Amino acid sequence: MILTSAQIENFNENGFLLIQNVFTQEEMTLMLEEMEQVIIEDCPRRILEKSGYVRSFFAPEASNEFFARVIRQKRVLRPAMQLLESDVYAHQTKLNTKHALVGDWWDWHQDYTFWKKDDAMLEPTVLTAMIFLNEVTEFNGPLFLIPGSHKAGMLESGERNIHGEQSEEWFSAYQNSTKYMSALTADLKYTLEQKTIASWIERQGIYSAKGAAGSVLFFHGNVFHASPNNLSPWHRHTFLITYNSTANPLQDIPEPRPGFIASRNFTPIRALDDDSLVP
């Protein structure tokens, strides 16, 4: 898939671009089946919610060839390279699961803040391709984005101290089990101030990313975004691939986060010759 000049202009103006039906329904059925096999693995790459359900599963391609193929699909890789005007590598990949009636929220934030402060990424020449594994509607916790907010650059965010006073005892201990856990659960470490969000929405409006299963949302590392709880009886599962420019490698730091959260393999990704996911 090659983006048009209008699509590139749309992304540069708004900070995101939603393309419907990039993958087929048959491919999404397969991806959901593979996801269910992946997320049952009890390992550090699996992140839980307070309900005990899986919230995220990082680097599924480390143990699953299907997701390794998805990352190299021309349908997502080529648009990423066009938008970043560069070869790219996969900085981070994860399955975000929002199970029906229990899926938790994500507070307003900028992804690049975490990658800058916690991983020493120098520039925001980075974007994420979010693949919709289910149909995303106004009911099942869609991603909210503020058009044009990426132009603000990275805003300063205070580091939140997480002590878990209002959490279940097991979750409080779990949330504080590692230095990086507060960047992954519902109580995010770096969030945007409410007055900042209100001001931007008043000026720019708010966009709800909805679409059929198989659609892909590309969004800039600095765009303001969040998502509500899933109170519907329909799942909202997604696979996110964060592509970073190979000209923007992470800098060396004393205690880097695990490679499954922030990859330090900056080898350019090359597209597969066969772009089908169906056997």
Task: Determine and state the CATH class.
Answer: Mainly Beta
Main-sheet strand order equals 1-9-6-11-4-3-2
**Share of residues in strands:** 15-25%
Any idea what the CATH superfamily is called? Answer: q2cbj1_9rhob like domain
| Shape call | globular
Compute the number of structural domains.
1
Secondary-structure element string: HEHEEHHEEHEEHHEEEE
The radius of gyration computed from the alpha-carbon positions, rounded to a whole number of angstroms, is 18 Å
> Major β-sheet, in short?
7 strands, antiparallel
Unreliable runs, pLDDT <50, ≥5 residues? 161-165
Instruction: Using the 3D structure, state the CATH architecture.
Output: Sandwich
Give the tally of β-strands.
Answer: 11
